[in-house]
């Protein structure tokens, strides 16, 4: 099998290399990729939308269908992980529970059928069986870091018109803060802050904000996702309306991407049981 | 003078080969994180700052965490 | 055809082609499922590199409009934003598909207790 794969790859690679002289030279301004449709985007992006970052304009305005269905693909991936993995059955470790007695630092193992301490007990704290992430240095550092990371992600979202950034990056950074909380404390702590139901709801609301903006344009008598018609609603002229609409749809993308990243992490790290995990 | 992108491209290929050759899946997951970060550097050298930002957050951040979470839940053993 | 400028002028493409077939070889020949998924990841990033290489222009700047160019814009001055947008969405889709692929690997591990392809085949046949 390995030899067959090697022969196949070398054969196909040779074919590709033989035809590589048809490719344009690297960095050629007259290459076909740079001559047909993209000069139009570069010349007209600022005039149409008053937004200097052309990538954000092409992403959320000229090619907004692409971005909308891409957000839908991300949502579908979140649902796929949920349906494949999620189960309430206990895993292979049986019914054990581990608790830590905070004042003394003693770890207690409670067998199946034993009496468990109260959920919100100040004295006993539930810990994971396979991995005990209790280090005060890591916990304090992450607790200090997370608010700044979240503010940074909002900056990335709001400043995406003028600098690199936008909905996808902001969503992933925001999701990474929740994942950081789950890694530095444990899964239950982050589930308390953002439950699975919240994650599912946010991802759906995010895609609906995007699709609903398009539908609003349709209802006001223009094409789907043609933002110019929203100008009276946003109290601005047509170009500024497109600029504001880019921000609105990017908020939707941020919510969807952030929630789906967290949701997939919850399912993957606990193998679908969402009690304890990495 | 050697351009910086030739060095980065060489490191990328070394990281890809290393990730595929590793005998421990946790090592492979971490090396693929380094690979993603080097890809991000190469994209930034070529001027695609938005794509580099996305690759840095998604490729080097979240997908490495996904790999590590999966290896943590399954096994580190691999035959090849 | 002058060989040396030809090879130097397209070295990014050689790197992309090498990574492309490295990923494809890993996806075909490796027996561990996680290694196959790593091959898939390398495959995807080689395509991303290829598209971004196609968008590069010499002596051009980032696709963010400069203040002094707001009157008349020369397209030669700016990098091509279209491949950037396509690859930006492709990266996020890549991580979503990676999540689904890892989920399937995890599911296979829970049923058969192994990630090796030949052991899984053996377990299926001996059922």
Automatic annotation (TrEMBL), chain A:
Family of the protein in this entry: Belongs to the CPA3 antiporters (TC 2.A.63) subunit B family.
Occurrences of domain MrpA C-terminal/MbhE (ranges): 31-87
Organism encoding this protein: Desulfobotulus alkaliphilus
Extent of the signal sequence: none
GO CC term (a single one): plasma membrane
Residues spanning the membrane: 67-85, 144-162, 168-187, 199-225, 245-266
Span of domain Na+/H+ antiporter MnhB subunit-related protein: 137-262
Protein name, per record: Multisubunit sodium/proton antiporter MrpB subunit
Keyword list, A-Z: Cell membrane, Membrane, Transmembrane, Transmembrane helix
Main location: membrane
Subcellular localization: Cell membrane
Membrane topology: Multi-pass membrane protein
Source superkingdom: Bacteria
Keyword Secreted: no
TrEMBL record, chain B:
Annotated Pfam families: MbhD
Subcellular location: Cell membrane
Transmembrane annotation, as ranges: 6-22, 27-46, 52-72
Residue ranges constituting the MrpA C-terminal/MbhD domain according to the UniProt record: 11-75
Keyword Transmembrane in record: yes
One cellular-component annotation, GO: plasma membrane
Domain of life: Bacteria
Membrane topology annotation: Multi-pass membrane protein
Keyword Acetylation: no
Keywords: Cell membrane, Membrane, Transmembrane, Transmembrane helix
Protein name stated in the entry: Putative MnhB-related membrane protein
Species this chain originates from: Desulfobotulus alkaliphilus
From TrEMBL, chain C:
Location in the cell: Membrane
Keyword Acetylation in annotation: no
InterPro entries per record: CPA3_antiporter_subunitC, NUOK/Mnh_C1-like
Protein name in UniProt: Multisubunit sodium/proton antiporter MrpC subunit
TM segment ranges: 12-28, 37-56, 85-106
Membrane topology: Multi-pass membrane protein
Principal localisation: membrane
Highest taxon of source: Bacteria
Upper taxonomic lineage: Bacteria, Pseudomonadati, Thermodesulfobacteriota, Desulfobacteria, Desulfobacterales
Family: Belongs to the CPA3 antiporters (TC 2.A.63) subunit C family.
Any Pfam family hit: Oxidored_q2
GO annotations of cellular component type: membrane
Keywords: Membrane, Transmembrane, Transmembrane helix
